[in-house]
Amino acid sequence: MRKIILTSVLIFTALLVSSAQEKGIIAEVLRNSVECKVDSMQELIGFDDDKAKQLKDMELQYLLDVQKAETCFLCSTKRRIAILKEIRDNHLQEILTRKQYIEYEGGDFDKVKKYPVRAR
Question: What's the whole-model pTM score?
Fold first, then answer.
């Protein structure tokens, strides 16, 4: 009986440790990709270091939350990710100016100005 309990406890601990190591590796990869993205966007757009730090923190938290939502067993993944995208978008608009926000999201501000706004 003791052997069975001891064996099951050891297996359970090994699973927890391997899961924790995997999460650490994923977090490190996400951190590196966020730093590269924000640094390259800082060079292209030209925002200051304070905004870059805020963006790095916000983007990393967003990616970790998305990863957590994707691995959640009982969660509504699509709805949760849609909510996270909306929160990220609001934070981006608070941190950056309108022009910087448009350029950060992949557009060119001069091209956007050429198209008229259409209201339905």
Answer: 0.69
DSSP conformational letter for 43: H
Work out the angle at residue 85's Cα, subtended by the Cα atoms of residues 62 and 76, and round it to the nearest 5 degrees: 90
Contact 101, 93 (CB under 8 A): yes
Task: Report, in angstroms and rounded to the nearest whole number, the Rg of the chain calculated over CA atoms.
Answer: 21
pLDDT tens per residue across span 29-88: 889 999 998 998 888 888 899 999 999 999 999 999 998 888 888 888 899 999 999 999
Query: How far is 62 from 67, CA to CA, in rounded Å?
Result: 9
Could you give the percent of the chain with pLDDT greater than 90?
A: 34
* 69-102 b/e (C-beta count within 10 Å ≥ 16 → b): beeeeeeeeeebbeebeeebeebbeebbeeebbb
